[in-house]
Every structure is written in C-alpha cells, then in structure tokens.
Amino acid sequence: MKIAVLSGKGGTGKTLVSVNLAAAAGKSTYIDCDVEEPNGHLFFKPADVKSESVTVKKPLIDSQLCSGCRKCVDFCKFNALAYVGGRVILFDDICHSCGGCALFCPEKAISEREKSVGYVQSGMSEDVSVITGIMNTGEASGVPIIKRLLENLPEDDKPVFIDCPPGSACIVMESIKDADYCLLVAEPTIFGAHNLSMVYRLVKLFGKPHGVVLNKCLEGDNPSERFCVENGINILGSIPFDSELGTLNSNALIAARESAKYGKLFNSFLETVAREVQHEAAVNS
Amino acid sequence: MKQLLILSGKGGTGKTTVASAFIKLSEARVFADCDVDAPNLHLVLSQSIEPKRSDYYGLPKAEINPAECIGCGLCLQHCRFDSIVGDGGYGVDYYACEGCGVCEAVCPVGAVALKPAVAGELMLYANDTVFSTAELKMGSGTSGMLVSEVKKQMKEAAGNADFAIIDGSPGIGCPVIASISGVDMVLIVAEPSVSGISDMERIIKTAGKFQTRVAVCINKYDTNVENSKKIEEFCKNSSLPFVGKIPFDPDAVKAINSALSIVDVDCPSGRAAREVFDRTLPLLFSKGDANTQSSGIQINTKKSV
Amino acid sequence: MKIAIPADEKSLESGVCPSFGRAPYFLIYDTETNESEFIDNSAAASQGGAGVKAGQTIVDSKARALITPRCGENAAMAMHAANIKIYKSIEGSIMDNINALTQGKLSILEEIHPGFHGHHGGN
To answer: Which residues of chain B are within 8 Å of residue A104 when distances are taken between CB atoms?
Structure first.
C-alpha cells in the first residue's frame, strides 16, 4: 500500500506523521518528496547512503554552426536563451528542458547534454528504507526528481509512506499520482482548516481515497475537525499537542522509537490506517 | 513607503500570527499576504467589503482540437512532460502541461494551440485600509510572479502611507525571493527546531544578497529552550538584531480561531509580540546602511548555529 | 552613446523604476543627439526569465550603459556578455541620473541579486 501524507501548508506535521508511521511499521519504505526542503532524513539519519544524480537535458549550442537566426531565442517560452555578443547564451536554471530549441534549430546547431538537477539518496534506518529526494537550489522544477523517487517502487508487502511537499502545486500532484491513499494532516486552527480545504480539493480532483489526521490538538473547538464533520471526511486519528512530542520532534528524534507512549500511539494509528486503506481498496476494486 | 516583510523559512512557525499582531499594533493602513499558495491573513484580518478581483495568468497550456487531430502522435513523441494522453486521438493533461509549445509547433495540422490559463486570482480590498492578497490555483507553478503582482497591487493602491507590512511566503524558494525584492526590512520568525534553524540560516543568506536589513525573533521558544538559546547566540555572533521571543500559548490558538489577532486579547504571546514589535519598528525606520544594521558592525553570515 | 534606464512612466522627469526586469518601459537616451525613445518592456508580462528577456531588449537597443537600482543575475550575465556597463541609479529623476552618468558621478552596480524565476515551486 502506498500512502501519501500531505497538508495544505508546511509545519502541520506531515513529516512527523510519515516518519513515525514508517518507523512504527518496522519494515517499510519512507520517501521524502519535499525535494526543496527534505527533512525526513534528519530524523532517520540513514546509514549506507547511496546517492544517485537526477539529470535533465539541457541544450548545448555549437557556435560554429549557429547562423544567428534567433529562432531558438524566439521559440523559448521560458526566456532561457538570449542572443548577445554574436552568440546564443543559455540560462540553464530557467530552462525547463522541453527540447524545443534543439528540435527547431534550422542549422542543427543545438544538441543536448545531461545536467544534474538533484539527487536521490537511499539508505537504511533499522528496517526502514529511507529514500530522499534533494533538489539543487535554484533549479526550475522538482518534478524530475519526484518522478525518479516514485519509479520502480517494489510491489511487495512493505508499506510505502510518501512525505509530500506542502501546498497543492504541481509537485504535490506529481507526488500523489500513484498513491493508493492520501492522509491529510491538519492543525486545529482556522488557518489549518482553510489549508485543509485546499488540499482536500486536490485529492478529490484526483479521485484519491483519503482520510484526515488531526495534529497538535488542544482542548476546545477544532475548526479542522468541524470541517471534516461538515464534509463527511473520515478522521483516522488525533495527535494531541504535547510538549514531550514537540521536544522530541524539534530535536529530530523519532517519537515512535524513543518513547513507549508514542510507540503505542503510532502503532495503533498505523493499524487504523492499514485497515482503512484495505477497506478503500476493497470498495474500489 | 517603508516595507516590512515577515518570513519564517519553515512553514507553521507563526508568520501570519505575528504579522497580524504587528498590523493591529501599528494600525498599518497598508498590508499584504504574499503566501499565495495558502493565504491565511484574511482569516484574521477579516474585511467587510468585497475585494476587487482579477485573474492572474500563468504559463499558457496546450489544448488539442479533437476535430482536427489526425492521431499521428507526434505531440506524444516529443512531449517531455508526459502531458499528452490518449490513444489514436490525443488530449492534454492540463496539470502536467508546462506550456513549452513543442506540441503546438510540431503538429502537422495545427490541431494544437497554447491557450491562456488562469493560474490564480488577485484580490484587493481598498477602503480606509489597503489589503492585497492572492490565491494560486491548484496545480500551478508560477508563484514567484504572483507574489510580485501582490506587492505591485499593494504599492499602486497605497497612496502616501508611511509603511506597509507584508506577510511573506514560507520556504526559501522563488516566491520568498520575489517577496524580499524591494523590501526595506525582513523580520524572521524562527522556530527553535533543527529544521527551523536551518531554514532561518538560508533566508538570512538570501536577504543578504538583496542588501535588506534583517532581524530575528523566536516563536514558541519554550518548545525547545536549548535551541532558542542557540538562535540567540547565533544572532549575537552574526551581529543581527535579536528582537525577542514569544512563548507557546494555547490562548493564541483560541484567539486565532475566533478570527482575532493575539494582541486583541490579553495573553502571554500577545504581550511578548508587543515587545518584539516595539523593538522591530524603530529598526524599520532607522537610517543607515542595511549591512551594518543598528550596531554598526558587518553581518558575518558565514557562521552557523 | 546610448544609455538605457528602466522607467515607470514615459517621462524624463519621473523616477527610475525600482525594478529592471519588470519595468513597464525602458528609456533609450542618446547622449550625442540628446534624443530619447521609450520602448515597451515585453518582459514585464513574462512568467519567468524576465531578467533575460529585458536584458535581450537592452542588448538589441545598442545601449552601452544601463542605469538601474537593482539587477538580477541573469540580466547581469547578458549585460556582461555584451560589455554593457551597469551603473547604480541615484535618487532623483531619470534626467538627473543621465546627467550624473555623463558627469562621471555614478558608480558601478556591485550587488547582483539572485533571480526569482516564476518556476514550479509548491512551497
């Protein structure tokens, strides 16, 4: 089962939930798709890390063949090319690697070379396979890295937890494409409820079975809980606000491993999630 | 008009909570929400009027006219973004399409055209205050430019106001860079966690490149007193003004959930925010080189926490 | 020689536009003929790469100098490739800046800022 963990905005507890569920599951895979700011590896501190570069194609202009017609400059929708000082210059961090310039150059003066835009790092933390995507600062898009992270996922019994980037932009869509189930994490504030509504729209658009986990719960009214009730969204669990959990988390420790109380909480939560995912799978098949 | 931008790096640190408090305390007449992916400021600073709305166009998206499509598949062959779907007759996956125009140029029968695509909506509330905000449509990618539009819209409506307060975007990417550009001062609301500190350092470096004055405060500092001390030390060693720390406060949540700012009620976080505000605003208006801040010493951003 | 300056309005008396890449117009001023021409900046509406596109416009205008308060790294790269000097603008009108340049009172713009390309973020 592939479970994507997402939230409308950062800081709600996506990483807390996905890291701890993966740890509670013991044998599992944790994939960090928040390629601009991956944090999961700070908790897992994986060993035997293997790193693989993720590349995209960037144009290479042969100035000997270039006739200065500027067709490439005019074609590029991203303004990644300019014609200055008698030659074509490439601004490669705004180039989206569409291949158009190479395809349409009348002199065949443009070829393509592979350029690294980031890395996929794999390691182990106890029985958890930790896979982290890291985008080089300033790159145009994290999508190629997420595509690599999610290709060739083993079709075995091990649950896969996908820690998604915050928000509902295209990199989030890419992260949930192959998920069987989406777990939405929400904070108990009106901000949290508003952000939950945005990401809820996203999972509905993609037709993904989904459920909510309420995080940082305090006493009193919970606007996110109200939103779920009003919209008939399944609440799979609530994690109370607790300074012990907060401290463990801010020191990059995995609560499910460090604390008996949280080991139990996340194990029971894992059982609920697994049951729910299987139920949805049965209903949809 | 002086502009104060509130950033945090990591999401969820309390940028909007602090920004709304500052806006109330300063009685700011001009303010903006640059967190276009998930705008929240309007939930606390509720407006009684309808805003002026305008569409924000992102990169155009390709559309295939099924009546003209001959099913040759050249578009599919050349699309680098897995955006052409179908078999025999083709269509475009709207969310995957990056608007590169290759399919349009390669189609032998002109069945593909790039059409303008609405990527978000700008909103401007202008009566006795000016509040500029926007929301990015799901699946869009061009938030940097929308942030610039929010600021531009704010400035154009601002008239002769002395200052503006801007609630920035989380993260460290291009929307943050777009929000820093042209601003007089950045206040970083830091979270005392390993990831929070790392993001704070990255923002300080970025703000440095724009020659913008930077100050730091800590929110929810008592969730990790040790890390909070580290942040204070770091500010001292880098000659960055440390303008205060705000405790974790359940009353803050109650206030926010009642659409009130933390300074509208009497609570510990509100009182602490007021102190941070009292130390920050003079820095916004003080003269002098941004690089030397108020202490007259060069910022040494090479040190780490 | 021709000088380029980003402008908010088509007037020599207005201030220099605070943004280079997204200025609505560029003034191209010829110091030999004292002729001024305001050209539209097509980069203002671009999703991304405004600095590059604006840079291309300046290069194509045959200006030898650019006066601007700020400049991004992509535009700066284009200027340097064309040997166009970038000067830091001062307070005052566009005309004040042109005079300051011809009197040798402007300094080269040292701080180049990173681009804020409107690319796929998600944060």
So the answer is: 105
Chains near A (3 or more Cβ pairs under 8 Å): B, C
Residue C119: pLDDT above 60? no
Residue ranges in chain A assigned as alpha helix (H): 14-25, 40-44, 71-75, 100-104, 143-150, 170-176, 190-205, 223-231, 243-250, 255-258, 260-284
Assigned fold of B2-55+120-292: Rossmann fold (3.40.50)
* List of chains touching C (3+ CB pairs within 8 A): A, B
What is the domain extent for residue C13?
A: 2-102
CA gap B133, A12 in Å, rounded: 22
CATH classification of the domain holding A234: 3.40.50.300
pLDDT in tens, C8-20: 889 999 889 888 9
Q: ipTM of this predicted complex?
A: 0.87
C123, A165: Cβ pair inside 8 Å? yes
Q: Which domain holds residue A208?
A: 2-54+118-284
B141:A169 CB<8 A: yes
- Which three-class secondary structure state does DSSP give residue C107? coil
Q: Say if A95 falls within a structural domain.
A: yes
- Does a structural domain hold residue C122? no
User: Which chain C residue's Cα is nearest to A80?
Assistant: C49
Q: Answer whether residue B38 shows pLDDT above 90.
A: no
Does the pLDDT at position C123 exceed 50? Answer: no
CA–CA separation, B137 and C93 (whole Å): 39
Asked if the C-beta of B209 comes within 8 angstroms of chain C's C-beta atoms, the answer is yes
What's the rounded Cα separation, in Å, for the pair B9 and B4? 16
Q: Do A198 and B38 touch (CB under 8 A)?
A: yes
Residue A113 inside a domain? The answer is no
Contact assignment for C111 to B148 by CB distance below 8 Å: no
How do residues C16-36 score in pLDDT, each as one tens digit?
Answer: 988 898 888 999 999 999 999
B298 pLDDT tier (thresholds 50, 70, 90): very low
DSSP C39-67: EE-GGGG-SS-HHHHHHHHHHHTT-SEEE
A36 interaction partners in chain C (CB closer than 8 Å):
121-123
Lowest mean pLDDT among B156-165, B198-207, C48-57: B198-207
CA distance B135 to chain A (A): 10
- Interchain pair C82, A85: CB under 8 A: yes
- CATH number, domain of A69, equals 3.30.70.20
Distance CA B240, CA B185 (A): 12
pLDDT average, residue stretch B154-161: 91
Res. B288 pLDDT band, cuts 50 70 90: low
Nearest chain B residue to C19 by CA: give it. Answer: B182
Q: How far apart are CA C103 and CA B19, in angstroms?
A: 45
